[in-house]
Write the structure tokens for this entry.
Amino acid sequence: MTNGIDDHGAPVIQGKYLGIFICWLLGNGCLFGAFEIQNYHPTRVITLTYQPFVLAISAIFAYHEAKVNTRLRNLVGYTLFFFGSLALVILDLATSGRGGIAAFIGVCTIVAVFGIAEGHVEGAMTGDLSMMCPEFIQSFSAGMAASGAITSALRLVTKAAFENTRNGLRKGAMLFFSITCFFELLCVLLYACVFPKLPIVKFYRMKAASEGSLTVTADLAAGGIERHPNPSAEEGSAFPERLSNKQLLVQNWDYALDVFLIYMLTLSVFPGFLAEDVGSHSLGSWYALVLIASYNAWDLIGRYLPLVRCLKLTSRKGLSAAVLGRFALLPAFYYAARHGGEGWMIALASVLGLSNGYLTVCVLTEAPNGYKGPEQNALGNLLVFCLLAGIFSGAVLDWLWLIGKGW
């Protein structure tokens, strides 16, 4: 099962490349529903409806992560994504595409379900993959960005195809929501039946269990490993103590602050400002879509750059400096929106996306190094909570762009 040592000093085990691909698909499914809502309902109210639920659920799981069944948590999350996407289709059919307060409340309720689902999945997957090879967590992160890029591409295609037809936007949304239902169901099946049986996944989970992790027990059973992989556990000997969540936060406060600031800045601009506060331009109704697509495409590219070793930023001080340097984008966006042309705004949106994706992967792949499996899982959950707290703060700050616009 082991075929040598890779460049990271980890054993090369069968199933690695299939595992990377499945992680990409699972990451894609983690945000597909959220991005479809943002593209077809890019309002600040929708974003703020989503965020409190995902943040609250993530906080609960981050606190209790050591006692949580990770397999059940992920399956519940992806199942909620599936039923939420299906509910959007049913809601549209039931209302025949008409608006109104009832339909809006229905959309907000489904958005809340998506928030609960993401609160289950993102921290659980990040913590679980933090115990494995860094390529897995990079691929999962890239998959999350790919969901945005794919959504934007499909939004552009459906706009071009249905723009001049009756109920064109509705037809495009229905097509995409239907595709999303199928994809979310695929994620449920992949995580439930395929991923836990990969040799490399079983290897890392057995290693984590031998270090005292209880969160992988159900996944090991799903992979056909019923007995505890650590013989000493059967003899009643205790596992070595792991660092507490507080100790992990103290040791990694800079990483936690980095991910918080990365996403606070990003969500203070994207998607609300890019979708609604861009003025009148020659691209007309296409302009906001092009800006959002530019952000999503470069966010995806940025998450692959750290795979090139010479381009990956590993210095903790260097990462913090880069994160703080991104705040220069705020006055740049403010100036470009009022005095710059379309090219400047597209370029800034691209830089925002590129830096967001690049720095996210650098932090999430560097932070777990040097810790035992249970600590890596805990740290992954804590970093995701800080990331989501940054998203929530950015979504709130996004309202500041409305100052001077009648508020």
Summary: The chain has a mean pLDDT of 83. The chain is about 70% helix and 0% strand. The two ends are 63 Å apart (CA to CA). Strands lie at 2-5, 11-13.
